[in-house]
Fold this protein.
Amino acid sequence: MSVRGGIIVVGAVGGCGTTTLAAALALAQADGGIRVLGLDGHGGGPGVLWGMSPDRTVDDLDAVRSEVDGGHAEQIIHRQAGGIEVVIGPRPGRSSPWSGGDADRLAAALVPDGPWVADCGRGGHDLARAMVRHASLVVVMSPRTVAGATACGEVVTMCGASRVLVAITGIPGEPDLSGRAFRRLMSTRMCVDVPTDPRGAQRVAAAVMPTGRRGFAVAVRAITDARDD
């Protein structure tokens, strides 16, 4: 299963599973080599999910902000088994945010020639917006609630991407909308369901791709199919 170009996963609200979905998307294509970028701006991301040591992070590029390039980015990559390259994002409170031209340069430096997935958390930062300009598909995760749908619409507008897919989840909190009602609120946006899948989430956290006909496995196939259409 391969994906041409990059996919960004952004959460309409916190705690709705963006990191787990981004990690699952990466695991699904690990054999072909993929770069995973944990750029949520709050110290999370797949690298943290997989228990990797934060000895090399985006913070290490602070000194070369004005000239950062692919060579600098190579120095902070964590290479894992299965062809996965992981970049761990800024530690919260450790450095000033990447913004403006600095964010644009870092985004260009981090994007590889091959496929990539970025976990951008809530996405409300310049680096996330810079990454969107390099992405082939933006996935916005939202809980199945009225508040989630409202926040989702705001994130979709903020991203300004040409291709956006909404991933509807049952977390966090108690859903108060049906999938059909949520889709009506989102108008004609492409939507996929991400069923609650605790076992699948445990497999992803153990860096094992979920399989089968439910949960994350189904969501990953739907997202990659949407990207390749």
